[in-house]
Amino acid sequence: MMIMIKNILISSILSCVLLTANTATFAYEDPLHVYQVGIAKNDPQQLDHAFKILSAQANAGDAASQGQLARIYMNEDSHFFDNQLAMQWAIKAANAGDLYGMNSIGYLYDHGLGVKEDNDIAMKWFRKAADLGLPLAQNNVAVIYHEDSYKGYDPKQALKWFEKSANNGYLEAQLTLADYFRTGCYDGFDQNAKKSEYWYKKAAEQNSSEAQFRLGDFYLYGFNEIQVNDVLAQKYLLQAAEQGHDDAMNDLGVFYSTGDTDENIDYQKAYEWLSKSAALKNPAAHYNLGNLFLYGEGRSKDVKKAIEWFKKGSDLENISSQLELAKLYSEGIETKSNNFLAFKYYKLAAENGSREAQQHLVRIYDEGIGIPKDPKKAEYWSTLLSE
C-alpha cells in the first residue's frame, strides 16, 4: 500500500494541524508569536512584518527562527513559497540542532521539492529528529516504514513508531492508529475495537472532532465488543457536531429520532441537526430527513417533501435514498406507481454497488418491467452478483 506524505498548511495557531491520517508534515508546534498573530488575523501586512522579523532573527543565527522560516518557504499558499530557500534554511536550522529543521529536510527529500526525491535520505533526517524525541518526525518515520514502495518496508516498525509518536501526544499518529485498528485493513494492524477506542479517546482529549465522531458512532451503533451506550454516544456526537462535523450532526439527528427510550426522542432536535448536516451536503442526512417526512416523525407526514429529500440524497449518490425512491415508485407506496422511475433509481443504486438493487435489475431486465426486455443486461447483472 502506498501512503502519500502530504504537505500541510500552517494553521491559524500554527499547531500540528491534521488533515488526514497517514500524513507526514512539516508543521511547527512552537511558533513565534508574531507570525501566529498574522495568520490568525489573515493580515498580509502583519505576515510581511512577521516575515521580516523572522528573517532578521534567522540571519542573526536563531535556530528556531531559521526552522520557522524554512517552513514558511515550504508553504505553497504563501507568496514567500520557494523550495530552494526552504532547503537552505532547513539545513541551517538542522545544523544548529533544530529538530523541525531536520524534519523539514526529510519532508523536502520525501516529496522531491527542490531536490531529487529520495526517501532514504528523507528517512535519515526523519530518524535524526525522531531519535531526539520529536513526535512529528516519529510519525513521519512510521509513515515511510508503512509505504510498500519503500525498500525498508516494515509494518512492525511502522506500528512501533506510530505508537511512539502517539504516546508523545502527536494527534495525527493517534488518529492513524485508531483508524487502522478500527478497519484492520492495513498490514501489521489487525482489527481491534478496544485499541481503536483507546486511541480515539486520546485524540478526543485533544478536541479532535473526527475522534469524537468515531467514538459517538461506536456508542450509537455498537462496534464488535464495544456496547451501545446512549450517554456516551450523545456526549461525543454533540462535541463533534458543535465543531461542525457533518457526519456527527447526522448521527446526532439519528440519535434523537431513534432513541431506545422516550427520553432520548426529540424530533425537533433531530430535524435541526439533520438540517445542519444536509446544509453541509451530507448525503445520509438527506435520506434521514426524507424519512422524518415519510413517516411523519415529529411533523406532519408529507410524502412529497420526503421524495424531494430522497432525490437530493440520490443526487449525492446516497444508496439508501436511491433504494427508497425505487421502492416508492415500484410499489406505488404513498405516490403514483412509475416503473420507469423505479428502474432509474434501482440502476443508480446498482451502479453504486447495492446488491439489493442489482438483484432487482436482473428481474427488471429479464421481465421488461418499465423498460424493454434485455436478456444480455439481465445476464450481466446476474454474473456480477455471482462474483
UniProtKB/TrEMBL annotation:
InterPro entries: Sel1-like, Sel1_AlgK, TPR-like_helical_dom_sf. Pfam families: Sel1 (PF08238). SUPFAM superfamilies: HCP-like. The keyword ATP-binding does not apply. Keywords: Signal. Residues 1-27 form the signal peptide. Gene3D superfamilies: Tetratricopeptide repeat domain. The keyword Signal applies. This is Sel1 repeat family protein. The lineage of its organism: Bacteria, Pseudomonadati, Pseudomonadota, Gammaproteobacteria, Moraxellales.
